[in-house]
Amino acid sequence: MIKFLDIKQITDKYSHEIHDAVSRVIDSGWYLQGKENEQFETNYANYIGTSYCIGVANGLDALNWVLRAYIEMGVMSEGDEIIVPANTYIASILAITDNNLKPVLVEPSLDTYQIDDTRIEEAITKRTKGIMIVHLYGQCAYTDKIGDICKKYNLKLIEDNAQAHGCLFKGQKTGSLGSASGHSFYPGKNLGALGDGGAVTTNDKELAFIVRSLANYGSSRKYVFQYRGRNSRLDEIQAAVLNVKLKYLDADNKIRKEIAAYYMQRITNPKIILPQVEDWDSHVFHLFTIRCSGRDKLQRYLMEQGVQTLIHYPIPPHKQECYKEWNSLSYPITELIHREILSLPMGPCINNMDIDKIVDVINQFEL
Ligand SMILES: *Cc1c(COP(=O)(O)O)cnc(C)c1O
């Protein structure tokens, strides 16, 4: 079977360096808040192009801490509204509700699956304090229009960059476009650790200081607690792994783009809707998503032919049990995407024979 994503293969590709890095940490006797974290924060801030990077425990915490920091700074308070795309992964929305802020769901564009910037302004109220854009599937969600709206209404622009490490908007990395950004290093992400990991990037010195404290029990000085924080630190071992893998991120993303270009060129079945890419710098293909009106049949057929696919995501946030209060709301574009979307195998380690097979099998699919 052709796997959707073979993480072991990716680890094997960098096996020697990863083993060396992990051994170095083991032998150092220093496992938290040490040199590896410091090095990674410097490397990743340089890579993204921000003044600050704070390593944290995971991507959800990263987003959570950004919002919490704005609350501590007095920029946001309980009940304030944050605009967020209706078709995002649940974590973006959990970060908002965890802080007692109110998510205001906005439909995506059916062409790019990114938040529809023509629908943002109508969702703004007196209580709107920020827009959380999500570079979903690895494609840049930022537009000049979104930047203009944030300026016009004095809104914070928060980026959920969990799926888009290395993605560019006019030469500038996602994660450096807004006021603060949350990143995830979950193993399956483009830059993945060997476990959980996350980071916040920002140019805001005060926010950086507060996030660093919050993720360390709310303390910046040992045994002095300024905020009610939590334990949300990035392990030295994970930071060491990330220091290795960051060096190869651009090369890995290049392979993803080559696979995507090949899929785009070779998949000719008229029943399949391919992703729309205007600018190849602005998509790092965390996922290669196609749409098909007979999605479930297509997925079963591909499985029978030995091709594993996944659905990102099968149930939109507003239809989830954890958000019962929204279950009767209607977001037709979001719901259509959730009915029709399918992710094909994608990653830096798929071989050409497998890609040819996937293309052939899809082209022979009959609805
Ligand atoms: C993975 C992901 C997150 C959460 O990251 P974790 O490290 O799993 O907590 C947040 N937002 C999006 C869009 C994601 O894909």
From TrEMBL:
Biological-process GO terms, alphabetical: polysaccharide biosynthetic process
Gene Ontology MF terms: pyridoxal phosphate binding; transaminase activity
Protein name listed in UniProt: dTDP-4-amino-4,6-dideoxygalactose transaminase
Gene3D superfamilies: Aspartate Aminotransferase, domain 1 (3.90.1150.10), Type I PLP-dependent aspartate aminotransferase-like (Major domain) (3.40.640.10)
Catalytic residues identified in the record: 189
Residues carrying N6-(pyridoxal phosphate)lysine: 189
Family to which this protein belongs: Belongs to the DegT/DnrJ/EryC1 family.
